[in-house]
Amino acid sequence: MNLIATPLNIRRLSQAGLVTLAMWGLAACGQVAQSEPTEPPLAGATIGGDVALVDETGKDVSFYDYNGQYRMVYFGYAYCPDICPFDVQRMAKGYEDFKAEEPELANRVTPMFITVDPARDTPEVVAEFTAAFSSDMIGFTGSEEQISAAAKAFGSFYAKGDEMENGGYLMDHSRAAFLMGPEGEPIALLPVEESAAGVTQELKKWVK
């Protein structure tokens, strides 16, 4: 059937074309939104390694003792007055929400807190600190040399601040949480400085 090029028909054709373009655009946007990166953002990075630590029971352990498990790794210290508790809280909540949605996959994940203040953070102290956030989180300490080597392996910075009048002190340290794979390979950064939901999304994206 031939259409006469009247203003009404032209308007109808134009509207139909716009609807078609809009539908195509929505489909294209949907395809972009649903696409997931196939390679982890930290793939190939020289992060991690078989570092030696002391767990919260006082046992000497190796990072590779946890091979077979995905590992969420955060460096901080128990006496931190502000940043660490909030970051660790978001990390723990992100893990707990992931566990509620994917309990079997969550069993393959170990949240880890590694102190940068081994002088004060004994095994008992890190155990108490991690227990305040999650029964699944494990705290680690070690000698000054062990902690220095661990931080260096993960590219994490820390330094002791000036001593205060009461004898206490703060620790300056980098703010990052890492998701490591079953063989200890780096996968992605966890957005613990932003939200628990962001942590959950990263776990859902990479833990298989």
Question: How would you explain this protein's 3D organization?
Answer:
The structure is a single chain. Mean pLDDT is 87; it is low at 1-33. It is globular, with a radius of gyration of 24 Å. It has helices at residues 7-34, 83-101, 103-106, 123-131, 144-153, 196-206; strands spanning 52-55, 60-62, 70-76, 109-115, 138-141, 158-163, 169-173, 177-180, 186-190. It has 208 residues and is α+β, with helices and mostly antiparallel strands. Helix 2 (83-101) packs across helix 6. It is built from 6 helices and 9 strands; from the N terminus they run αβββααβαβαββββα. The strands form 2 sheets. A 7-stranded mixed beta sheet has the order 2-1-5-4-3-8-9.
Q: In CATH terms, what is the architecture of the largest domain? A: 3-Layer(aba) Sandwich
- List the total number of helices: 6
* CATH domain class of the largest domain: Alpha Beta
- Helix proportion of residues, in percent? 25-40%
Question: In CATH terms, what is the fold-level topology of the largest domain?
Answer: Glutaredoxin
**How many separate structural domains?**
2
Point out poorly predicted stretches: 1-33
Q: What is the average per-residue confidence, as pLDDT, rounded to a whole number?
A: 87
Helix/sheet category: alpha+beta
Main beta-sheet strand count, sense and barrel state: 7 strands, mixed
Shape: globular
Element string (H = helix, E = strand):
HEEEHHEHEHEEEEH
With strands numbered from the N-terminus, the spatial order across the biggest sheet is: 2-1-5-4-3-8-9
The named CATH superfamily of the largest domain: Glutaredoxin
Rg measurement, Å:
24 Å
